[in-house]
Structures are given as structure tokens and as C-alpha cells.
Known about the structure:
single chain, 342 residues, mainly beta, seven-stranded parallel beta sheet, 4 helices, 17 strands, 45% strand
Amino acid sequence: MSLASALKTGDVAQLPSRRDEDWRWTDLRGLIRTLPPAAPTHDGDVPTGLFAELAAAETVFVNGRRVADAEAASAVVALRFVALADKASQSASHALVVKPGESLVLLESHEGRAAGYVSDVALDIAVGEGASLERIVLVDDEAEAVNVVTAEVALAPGAKFSQTVLTSGARRQRIETRVSHPGAHAEVRLDGVYLLDGQRHADLTTVVTHAGVDGITSQLTKGMVADQARGVFQGRIVVSPGADQTDARMGHHALILSDKAEVDAKPELLIFADDVSCAHGNTIGALDENALFYAEQRGIPEIEAKAMLTEAFVGEVVERIAHDGAREIAAAWVARKLGSQV
């Protein structure tokens, strides 16, 4: 069951539903009664991307169709998925290989420039031995859109993979990352920020499977929900038999700024090996009332005080982005979203 198979066959019965354990908080079958028609070809100009001028080259998909390809030799590349057709469906797939010993920064954006679209994106990423990849993902969907982004990441020994996802949600949205971790001194960092208002929904799901000795995973996700928004975090780290000396850390922390907002969190550690160091933490609460009172007493309006405190709260995740330009854009995006949300 998947959105991809439903779009391919036209059968809404192929959509995942709340009966599927991993999709119980992101029900697509109960939401989508009929699938919209396929998006038409776009022959006009493409709007400027969210990471304009940072990348040496870019690969661009518009309405699910590839319209530009990045040069393979570039050290910083942009990957864009742009929706420009109202109430239409689109699907796209892309494969990325980082060769042994190479380093790459991937600036990925999902840009909703249309209303009520349904989108499915599948990524296949391979990071070679001793190579490194930093993936920064900005998901800026339209409020009534449905979007599923799934990345399958395979690491070779000694590889490094870092990821930061930033999203403001959609009517239904799921950003899923699955990592095959070989151990063998490979390192993974999986981070995320979700800032949701209105009736927006965001589901950040990750699965990391450690298959060998001496692997490292670090994960930090922070979110804020207001109004009637819903945030979902599902993080699973599997330490397979024989994957001794694994070091895995997971943290999820969320702020709820409305009585009608909701956060569903399911952090999991499945450990089948000895001699490991693994831990996870999960907190959900409101803004610190003392800090809010302190700011207001110094003349800062309540709305600005909430935005300032929330920005500081998620700032820890943004600061972990290694690429300077991408970190600046991410910080500006957070500030812009919070300026309109709290």
C-alpha cells in the first residue's frame, strides 16, 4: 500500500490507511476519495528556487517531469520538485550516487506553487565508502496539498550522511527516510524541524537499521504546532544481531501552542545486540511561562515573545547544519514562518 501505487493504478484502495501501523496518524485512504488527474506538462518559466545561487547546478522536476539536470561533478547541487498545476497529481523519482571518497551537499526543495495537488516523490541515495553527503530539505507545500516524500539511503563503510528536514506541513504530508547503516565507522545525523499552524499536518518518519559493528547515529527533531495542526514523529533505530558497539541517540521535543493542536510521537529503539550505547528522549509541552512573562515585562509583545522563544527552541537543530549558506536560509525560513504563525 502506497501513494505511488495508487497514483500508478488509479486505485484508491492502494492508499495507506490508519489500519497500517506505520500510517495510523497519517491516513490517506480516509482523506482521498478520488485521485486527481495527472498534472499537465509545464512549458513556461520555472520560478526561482528556495536555494537560489547556493548551488553550482540543479536538477528540477516540474509537475513530476524532469526539466533540468545537475552536473555530476558539482560539489553543491540543488534538487527541486515544483508543483505548478492546481488539483492535479504528480509523481517523480530520482537516484543519487556519491562516489567513494567524494563529498556532496544536496539542497533539496519541495515547492508548492499550486493548490490542492497530490504529489509522490521517491529518492534512492547511495553514499560510497569514505564519502559524505549533507542533505538539507525544505518542504514548502501549499496548505491543501497532499505530499509524500520517501528516501531510501544506503551507506558504505566509513560513509557520513547528514540530513536536516524543515517543513511547514500540508493537508497531509509525510517525509520518510530509511537508512541502511553498515556500521564500520559510518556516521548518520538525522534532524528535523516542523512548524505547523492552521489545519496543517506533517509526519516525519525515519528508520535506521544498523547491520554491523561500530556505527553511529545521532537524531534530533523539534517541532511546534498551533491552531488545529498535527505533528507526527516516528523514529525507529534497529540494532541488528552482531551490530555491537553501536552508538545511537534520538531526541524529539515539541511545543503545543493551542488546546486543539496535537503531537503524536513514537520513538523506538529495537536492540538485538550486546555492548551498545543507545538512548532516546521525547518531550511535549508548552512554552516556558516564566520566560514568556520575563520577555513581556521588558516590553516585548506577546506574539513577538512567543516567536522569539520558539525560534530559540528550534534553533538548536538549525545550528547543526554544516553548510553556511544553507544554515542561513534555514534560519531565515524559520523566522519567516514563526512571524506569521505565533
